Amino acid sequence: MIDIEKIKRYAAEIRENIRLIKEYATSEEEFFSDKRNILSVKHLLLQSIEATAIICNHLLSKMGKIAPSGYTECFKGLEEIGAFGKEATEKFVRMVRFRNILIHHYLKVDDKEVFKYAKQNLSDFEDFLEGIFNFLKKKRLL
């Protein structure tokens, strides 16, 4: 059975992280003036991407009876069960790629790209949550 409260908790975490990211990345000058802003935003982005993956895995395991082998497959699985279309799925796969850069190439991460992501891609998280809750409503699970 789908744990709606679990999904809501992770959704709340994502929303709070978005709020904090906006606070730490108000302007390029402010963002780069304190290394703590950069480190905080990287961490908050990672937490948010991880939270989307947790929601994804939970839904797939309960609805699709699918155990994805990775985050990319997870988001593609949501497309297969009708939660998202191809365009949204591609956006979430790009999110996973950004996560992989942050984790696996940590020393090579360009902080300007982190700032750019924080300014241009936060709506991806909002789109994910909106899509998940619309899907749950459509399935009469919410």
Record the SSE blueprint.
Layout: H1 4-24, H2 28-33, H3 35-64, H4 71-80, H5 86-104, H6 111-120, H7 122-138
Second-tier CATH architecture: Up-down Bundle
Distance between the termini: 12 Å
Strand content: under 5%
Tally of individual domains? 1
Radius of gyration: 15 Å
Tell me the series of helices and strands, N- to C-terminal: HHHHHHH
CATH homologous superfamily title:
bsu32300-like
| Fraction of residues in helix | over 70%
Low-confidence segments, given as residue ranges, are none
Structure annotation, total helices: 7
Main beta sheet: none
Average pLDDT score: 94
Spatial shape? elongated
Q: Any descriptors?
A:
7 helices, 142 residues, Four Helix Bundle (Hemerythrin (Met), subunit A), 80% helix, mainly alpha
